[in-house]
Amino acid sequence: MGKFDSYKIDLRGMREVNASYDLSVDNEFFAHIDGPEVQKGKVQVVLDVHRMVDTYEMSFVLDGTVIVSCDRCLDEMDLDIHTKGQLQVRLGADYGEQGDVLIIPEAEGVINVAWYIYEFIALAIPMKHVHAPGKCNKEMSGKLNKHLLRSAEDEDFGGEAITFGDEADEAETPVDPRWEGLKKIINN
User: Fold this and answer.
1) How far is CA 23 from the centre of its chain?
2) What strands, in cross-sheet order, belong to the sheet with 55-69?
3) What are the angstrom distances between the C-alpha of 91 and each of 19, 48, 58, 110, 143?
4) Element (H or E) spanning 105, and its range?
5) Where exactly are the structural domains of the chain?
6) Is the pTM of this model over 0.85?
7) Please, is 13 exposed, middle or buried when counting C-beta atoms within 10 Å of its C-beta (0-12, 13-18, 19+)?
């Protein structure tokens, strides 16, 4: 039995107009799929397949938790996943795509949805994922804070902005009074 055999859906063999599948995604799934965004987690997937005249409409509902790296301290963190996805499939002569419709060979009539499930999970992960305030690794936060200068504008660090290198030097350098005079001219 292959790694993803439990994620194969036999479309050609569907006897009913509607079919429902309960699938589970766990650490072993993520290890086998070898995708860069998620390496661990547990997600329940409910897949409803509706057969129409010449297409199959697949509706995915995914609920669970994945483990990702915190962008700030790099420690692992739990991230809740609650998402839905749609996939339309048509049987044809060969593999292909026609707009938003995936075409699979009629001779096979089977689609493996493992990669599509992974993509729905990966797309549900926000661009920025950080621990709740005060939950980051204290040691890493201390090292990060040592290399950053702060001002009162940043939301990510409790209302304090981050400035780097030359920006910090400019902030501490007094402004030439001639510039102040030029600003008055511009404002008039």
Assistant:
1) 20
2) 18-25, 40-51, 55-69, 76-92, 101-105, 96-98
3) 17, 18, 14, 9, 56
4) strand 101-105
5) 5-124, 148-187
6) no
7) exposed
Instruction: Report DSSP letters for 11-23, one per residue.
Output: STT--SSEEEEEE
What's the CA gap between 27 and 75, in Å, rounded?
17
Which residues, including other chains, have CB under 8 Å from residue 110's CB and lie 6 or more apart?
A: 8, 9, 10, 11, 12, 104
The DSSP result for 6-60, as a single string, is GGEEESTT--SSEEEEEEEE-HHHHHHHT-SS-SEEEEEEEEEEEE-SSEEEEEE
pLDDT digits (tens, 9 = 90+) for 101-113: 999 988 888 999 9
Neighbours of 150 (CB within 10 A): 15
DSSP result, 127-179:
S---PPTT-S-HHHHHHHHHT-EEETT-TTTTS-EEE-HHHHHHHHSPPPHHH
Rounded distance, CA 78 to CA 53, Å? 42
Q: How far is CA 140 from CA 14, 15, 75, 99, 116, in A?
A: 54, 57, 9, 47, 35
Question: To which residue do tokens 């397949």 refer?
Answer: 49
pLDDT digits (tens, 9 = 90+) for 58-92: 999 999 999 998 888 888 899 999 999 999 999 88
